[in-house]
Amino acid sequence: MRFQENWFQILQTTFMQHALVGGSLVALTAGLMGYFVITRQNAFAAHALAHIGFPGATGAILVGAPVTLGLAVFCVGGGLLIGLFGKRVAEREIATGTILAFATGLGVLFASLATANASTTTNVLFGNLLAISRDQLWTFGGFTLLVVAALAVIARPLVFASVDPAVAEARGVPVRALGVAFVVLLALTITMAVQVVGTLLLFALVVTPAAAALRLTARPGAVAGLSVAFALASVWVGLVLSAMIDLPPSFFVVAVAVLIWGTVLVATRERRSARPAAPAVGGHDVVHAVPERAR
Amino acid sequence: MTAAPDSETPPALVLDGVSVVRGGRVVWDEGDLAVPAGAVVGVIGPNGAGKTTLFQLALGLLPAATGRVEVLGAPPRRGNRRIGYVPQNYTAALGQAVRARDLVALGLTGTRFGLHRSTPDERARVDDALRRVGAAGYADRRMSELSGGQQQRVAIAQAIVDDADLLLLDEPLANLDLRNSQEIVTLLGELRRERAVTIMVVAHDLNPLLPVLTDAVYLLDGHPHHDVIGEVVTEDLLTHLYGTRVRVVRTAQGDLFTRSG
């Protein structure tokens, strides 16, 4: 571990440029999806889908297909499979966990059959922003466009179906179809994000920025904006740090994301405990004011 | 604003020879009743008698196995904007991500695909609904920060924001303490006075609702029945209905009280 004097030149190399563009696309998508992952209380599914992508990636290496394709096929397939296991959270979590374990086993099997070198497997598990190719950038761009456009179309009914499924269904919202669409979008996001931070660290990029944003505000637009900003900051600062100090960018990206989250957690905890207790019963038109006794 | 619906208004809910089957089991049958528009109706019956099923029928979420159903003068259909619905255990799934105001807005625009900015008119209607249920003071708070009574008010605001003509409330008083429970009942009475809305309330305890109820639908011996409230609150009927001894006490205020023992 050593400070690299020429870090600014390193940032201008082609692989760093690819990393910046690719990482930014992933941060944008992950930051937006994170909001919906949390409103759906689906964080575990996000975590599981990343692991389900592992055999997709090693399987692709085994048959000589692009890693992105393998990841996408397994993530989307795994997402649909999880989606089949109904609405009951307890049931779904057990099914998800079981599929997750099996997928990880398959991943190990494929990796050993493919006699993939250790670094390829490591890249899938921990990500490698610096290995993103020009072709992958085009794929990332397409995925980002697709996810953002789809979210723009389904955002409102998706939130309705997520927080209030019984009423949404009565109101005519296609709750089930939206659930499937959401899982497919999540799978595409994860396919990209795995290549940045890997299956094991993915949670920190897809869920953590949105979680931090939600502690600061509950206005939907502001949450989405802040979440994207936090994800972008994690990727950018992470990359600059990895140029300065020759260590894997995955570590720095995740570290920045966690640092932001931790700071927000501590800051809001103090603010929340300082806030006076809410009026016990919602009287009619109570003005949002600080009660005298609390001053 | 008049409370009395004119005689032209069709009944809020009509069942004509209706039976409901779920999972191969007949939930109830021989459903013949008409709930008049503008009534405040308690839906009562023992657990598992099919009270929620009645709501699902009206919402078009469950088809009648036989017979004819009419809601507000038309066959039931999913997505009927004239019905406001608050399901049971409403608050169970709500996380920290939505504010009271966002939840109410979903009742107005939640079914809309595509990007739309909410219009000033829509925002005004959301504010108005929150004010009518007495929730304006915590409109910007997260649902997860609200008490059970406050959450229930917001849920009712969502149900009325689109000017529904029929409100279906499933156990709105469950898990509420005495004071909150009474305030919700008072609110239902106020809503009824403001507009000629029909309100149907599933409740396992009639007592807190008695001041506002005009009618009752009771599920007895596998059939739904309808009557005015005075005919339902009798010792014989309630004892039969709940399978345990129930007494009716008339207090000085003229209130009816039912209690077992």
TrEMBL record, chain A:
It holds the Pfam family ABC-3. Its main location: membrane. It is a multi-pass membrane protein. The chain crosses the membrane at residues 20-38, 58-82, 94-117, 137-161, 173-190, 196-216, 223-245, 251-268. GO terms for cellular component: ATP-binding cassette (ABC) transporter complex. One of its GO terms (biological process) is transmembrane transport. InterPro entries: ABC_BtuC-like (IPR037294), ABC_TroCD (IPR001626). Keywords: Membrane, Transmembrane, Transmembrane helix, Transport. It is found in: Cell membrane; Membrane. Belongs to the ABC-3 integral membrane protein family. This is Zinc/manganese transport system permease protein. It comes from Klenkia brasiliensis.
Automatic annotation (TrEMBL), chain B:
It comes from the Bacteria. The keyword Cell inner membrane does not apply. The keyword Magnesium does not apply. One of its GO terms (molecular function) is ATP hydrolysis activity. Residues 13-246 form the ABC transporter domain. Coiled coil: none annotated. Keywords: ATP-binding, Nucleotide-binding, Transport. Belongs to the ABC transporter superfamily. This is Zinc/manganese transport system ATP-binding protein. It comes from Klenkia brasiliensis.
